[in-house]
Amino acid sequence: MSISQSVDAPLTLRNNLTIGGALSTQNGTGTGSLTLAAKRLLEDNKWVELDLSVGDGVVFGLKHFRTLTRRIFGTGTLQFHFTNSGIHTGVETTFAMQLDEHTMGYLTYKAGVQSSMTSSIAHNTENAHVGAALTLGIPHCFISLNYAYNFKEQKLKLRTALKAGTFGAMFEY
């Protein structure tokens, strides 16, 4: 089970502050984090964000977004995770392309403690989300499928997911 909440506070037309928190539990063990993020809009097609998160250690991150063409954008993230065992760094780069009005394709490369290359596709409509991804990584390679449906009148979201790979298979509902 997991719960997350965030509040956006626009400071100016170009500056935004976000405060968020997340709690999750699995098999009787709980984790949580508190995040503070400051975003600055540099131009209409690019922004930069500084993140500070406290939970399982302290995480400091720097994120950059840039629109490359009308249908393609990219993001880059650099993270420093401070734990009792030392500092762990991570880099993530994503390129995304709008394939049609409701469908996006993504290519993501992660380097760090768990390196991977992921190709994914997501189709969103007003009531539903369908996604599929193929991840080639260290230590695990897997394929994942997910589906979510929104019941607007009841303010309810129904989700299901399937993952299968080198770690076995997992079904969530």
What does this structure look like?
The chain folds into 2 domains: 96 residues; 75 residues. The chain contains no helices and 13 strands. The protein has 173 residues and is an all-beta fold. The model has no long low-confidence stretch (mean pLDDT 95). The radius of gyration is 18 Å and the shape is globular.
Rg over C-alpha atoms, rounded to the nearest angstrom: 18 Å
Kindly report how far apart the N and C termini lie. 11 Å
Q: Please report the total strand number as a whole number.
A: 13
Strand/helix succession: EEEEEEEEEEEEE
Q: pLDDT average, as an integer? A: 95
* Total separate domains: 2
Q: Could you name the ranges where pLDDT drops below 50 across 5 or more consecutive residues?
A: none
In which range does the helix fraction lie? under 10%
Class based on secondary structure composition and strand pairing: mainly beta
Layout of SSEs?
Elements lengths: L1 E9 L4 E12 L2 E15 L2 E10 L1 E11 L4 E12 L2 E13 L4 E9 L4 E9 L3 E10 L4 E10 L4 E10 L2 E5 L1
Antiparallel strand pairs: 1-2, 2-3, 3-4, 4-5, 5-6, 6-7, 7-8, 8-9, 9-10, 10-11, 11-12, 12-13
Summarize the structure.
This protein has no helices and 13 strands. The protein has strands spanning 2-10, 15-26, 29-43, 46-55, 57-67, 72-83, 86-98, 103-111, 116-124, 128-137, 142-151, 156-165, 168-172.
List keywords for this structure.
78% strand; 173 residues; globular; 2 domains; single chain; mainly beta; 13-stranded antiparallel beta sheet
